[in-house]
Amino acid sequence: MKAVNNCLSEIGQSREPHLSTAIPMHHRTSPPLRVAPDDEAYWLSIRASMQPMYVNTQLVNTRRGPAPFRVREVIRSLVDLSLAYELDEYEPFRELKESGSSVAIRQSLAAYFGASADEIALTRNAMEGIATVLNGVTLQPGDEILATRFCYDSNLAIIHQRVRRDGVVLKFVDLPFGPASEADIAAAFEAAIHARTRLVSFPHVVARTGLVLPVKQISEIAARYGAFSFVDGAHSAGHIAVALDELGCDGYAACLHKWMYGPRGTGFLYIRRDRIKDVWPLFASWSNKPKDSIEKFEEVGTVFKALPAAILETMAFNLEVGQAEKTARLRYLRDRWARQLGAHDRVTLLTDLDAEPGTGFAAFNVEGLAPQEFAAALLSDYGISVRPFSMEEDAAMAGIHLSPSLANSVEEVDRFVEAATAILARTHNSFRPTT
């Protein structure tokens, strides 16, 4: 019970040794990295602290990342209380709202991502925040939603439902598949938007290729037309530095279980203070929160409180590793395989490895070998998992995706390169070059 009591005592408090360093991203200078991305002894210690339970060598981590053991221990220590306590004067989670949120949690998220606590609502995942905004922005028949073919399929499903239900119009921005400059991306949004556009929805990071969209420029374009700019941040939060008040978007939704390595079932929704009133909550506020209160988005019913109770431990882990160090490590792992494999005459990279800011994602195609064939051979013969993909709205946009995480090692990445090179060599005779 001592460990449990210690955990409970921290739920409603800011963890001063850690959160005192949580300066918003845009206020930070760029000092030298505290740990080099190729310091393998250090990064192996981080991997050991995460204790990933992979069956195969998992080089795709876009769905979820392994929570550090320390975060899992907090959750384990609180499971029984979360399932058994009564709502009375002995309430052990008295600092947490019914939704699992607390002032300390919102403050820690706001500090890390460059926002104010009154602009951050705790959610159970990115999709909850995404569904809130995509369903909550008021639209009239004939109004237009501007999106991209790179939006997550669940996001597009919500938009398609609004098209059917409300008679709104969905329009796609014509973006290239593969490398693209920020200027070209912004120009494409500028060309697509018009007076009937009311909502602009796009990912910060394209999950398959790692392309980073210029949020600030796109948000400025949307603002000129009075449109609500909404960012899917599932793959930027914890992956690259995010300063929400610098990005200028009206809304941003993310989860904490991918690149923040937090509990599955936790996330957050950011709505810029002056736009909160413009978004209806997914659930009507039963406590009559005013329309300009960020807390109206947190009234979602009963949650399993052991999960949000571990968020402060998650934030402590990320602050101790450092966002700049995390980003540098992820890019190092990407470059280690992508620059070698990209030099092969049958391989076409779909990712600009020199783009800034860059991610740990990259994708490629192999001439003469379908993505599914390559991935199947890699898994069956070498026990290495990568992801063949095709975009939901355009199957011609296809390739092979890798996204190593902090739980991956250089040895695993190098073994992938060796295996991929072997597959390319043994399929050489069956390959017929195009003329």
Automatic annotation (TrEMBL):
SUPFAM superfamilies according to UniProt: PLP-dependent transferases
Segments forming domain Aminotransferase class V: 105-415
InterPro entries named among the record's database cross-references: Aminotrans_V_dom (IPR000192), PyrdxlP-dep_Trfase (IPR015424), PyrdxlP-dep_Trfase_major (IPR015421), PyrdxlP-dep_Trfase_small (IPR015422)
Coiled coil regions in record: none
Keyword entries, A-Z: Aminotransferase, Pyridoxal phosphate, Transferase
Pfam families: Aminotran_5 (PF00266)
One MF term in the entry's GO annotations: transaminase activity
Stored PANTHER family: BLR1280 PROTEIN, L-CYSTEINE DESULFHYDRASE
Record protein name field: Aminotransferase class V-fold PLP-dependent enzyme
Protein source organism: Mesorhizobium opportunistum
